[in-house]
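[step 3/7] fold_predict: job queued, chain A
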Amino acid sequence: MLHPQVSAAAALRMRPSAEVLAADPLTQVRFVREAMEAANEAECGPAFPLPVVADFEASGVPCRLYATGAGLPVVVYVHGGGWAYGSIETFDRFCRRIAHRSGCAVVSVGYRLTPEHPFPAAHSDVEAVLAYLRKEGADLGLDPSRIAIAGDSAGGQIATVVARRQRDAATPLDHQVLIYPALDPLCASESYAELGEYGLDKASMQLAWSAYVPDPALRFTPDVAPLATPDLSGMPPTLIITAEYDVLRDEGADYADALVTAGVPVVHTCYAQMNHGFARKLAVIDAARAAADQIAAVLRSALTF
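[step 4/7] structure written:
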């Protein structure tokens, strides 16, 4: 049974009018972006004050740094939103909580969105940020020798692809956190058939994948479909969070199993009664705060040595 807090949270978001639903796809995308921004305070709560909250550019990519001190390890955060929605601002409260509870600095990345900037723009932006932090992180008061990556939904897909590419480049990351990651362009797992009336469905995910990677031939390469990666050994230790009432639940579980098979240390937690997108809604969902604190504890253990 879906938790009542999830239903209450859903009521906070503006719904599209018939006019918007009949409009062109880009107009619909812009409506969702605006609705997400408008509901941010109600869903996520007020901004928790931190000693350091600073906007900067990393090789031209907008970022926001959250820190409680100097010389801290770094968590690069890649927000979700179907590769088309979300922003630094809509994940601001979540990143503040992670930084406060983990003892790590968090760098939130404002990567380019689809449909204006399809694959591989987002991946290139995140990789550019990592390269910048390795080179210039000390000047920002960070310890670039200890870096993890984290992301939710589409951001989880970007995060784990970038982590695999960092492994291949012999610059491995220390940890990865994947929150209900979108990993299967086929949308073929059993949870798609079982679920679909809880905020995310197969049709919307198929549209998201096709907008993100317009060329079908690219959708099943390892840079797009992490489950197609032939060798996952050497990937960083991983925390995967999934939600019981999320169509992406099973692909997250499948990826956890694949990493374990490859010898990667994995913790996989499925949050009962939750749906897709719950983790950032700190103001209205108790499990969101629990998930953020679990993530912070794992990152603290992995990076603050």
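[step 5/7] annotate
The beta strands are 52-58, 61-67, 72-78, 105-109, 142-152, 175-179, 238-245, 266-275.
The chain has a mean pLDDT of 96.
exit 0
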